[in-house]
Design a protein that fits this description.
With about 280 residues, the chain is of the alpha/beta class. The protein contains seven helices and nine strands; from the N terminus they run αβββαααββαααββββ.
């Protein structure tokens, strides 16, 4: 028995298969082109949003500069807080700005004088941030010099200091130390922890009581007796000049992060260092 299809039916089958193959190829090509177009559109939108978030972040930085110049921040006033947050919306981008007072904290790089000697007043305060630890100034000096020899252009950072104190990177003490600033601690903005480390619990209570009545206007304020300062004049101040500004500008696809270290001098704000990245 011969089960072969008639020639006409065979030809129809070949045509049908050819048509199906062509349809499949066309659909595949269309999907590929669509994916490419969608990818190109997504990349375009992403690039545009990077530009928008960068612009928004820089607007947030400019706003922080303006606040510093207008002195609309509590750096000279009472309270333990050393950070001020500001949030606003700019053309669909959510901007958050935090200005941190670097002089409300202990500057670990100021604990060594340019001559190489240890600043014992600051080191004593620093060592008291970790109660129960018997810290040696000579050991700090030795480890700091070893690190400087390995990384001569990099300042000491908080991770180095926390490791020396035997504390974890996320320990609350991280908020009380800095690697920048002029080394003087602002009595008007330093936290209870920093003031206690600087002069003891009674010193901290008295300074906070005084500044709650009225901001301290001078290190020679009549309310600050010689006995209260206990020889701390070389390492204290009542107004801050160094600040760290952190800005986040978030869109639907990307967030721009901007961090800047600035110095306020008279009627100007000077940018010392900045870093920008996206996530």
């Amino acid at each position: 028995m011969n089960y072969a299809l008639p020639l006409e039916n065979q030809q129809k089958g070949y045509v049908l298969i050819t048509v199906l193959v062509m349809i499949t190829a066309i659909m595949g090509l269309a999907m590929t082109m669509g994916q490419r177009a969608l990818g190109a559109r997504t990349r375009t939108v992403y690039s545009c949003e990077r530009i928008k978030t960068r612009h928004a972040a820089r607007s947030g930085l400019a706003s922080a500069f303006e606040n510093l110049l207008l002195d609309q921040t509590p750096w000279d006033g009472p309270g333990d807080s050393w950070a001020l947050g500001e949030a606003f919306d700019l053309t669909g981008i959510q901007v958050t700005t935090i200005t941190r007072d670097e002089q409300a904290r202990i500057n670990i790089n100021a604990m060594i004088y340019p001559s190489g000697d240890i600043n014992r007043l600051l080191f004593r305060a620093f060592s008291k941030l970790s109660p129960g630890k018997d810290l040696d100034a000579a050991d700090w000096l030795s480890q700091a010099n070893d690190r400087a020899a390995r990384y001569p252009v990099l300042p000491l950072d908080s991770s180095f200091a926390l490791n020396f104190l035997g504390l974890s990177p996320d320990h609350p003490v991280a908020d009380e130390i800095t690697w920048s600033g002029n080394g003087k601690i602002n009595l008007n903005t330093a936290s209870n922890r920093v003031l206690t480390a600087l002069g003891g619990p009674e010193f901290s209570r008295q300074v906070q009581r005084i500044r709650e009545e009225k901001p301290i206007e001078s290190v020679f304020d009549s309310r600050l007796t010689d006995n209260l300062l206990q020889g701390l004049l070389p390492v204290v101040d009542i107004r801050s000049s160094t600040f760290r500004i952190e800005v986040q500008a978030s869109g639907s696809l990307v967030t721009c992060h901007l961090e800047a270290l600035v110095v306020r001098q008279g009627d100007s704000v000077i940018l010392l260092q900045s870093n920008e990245w996206w996530s």
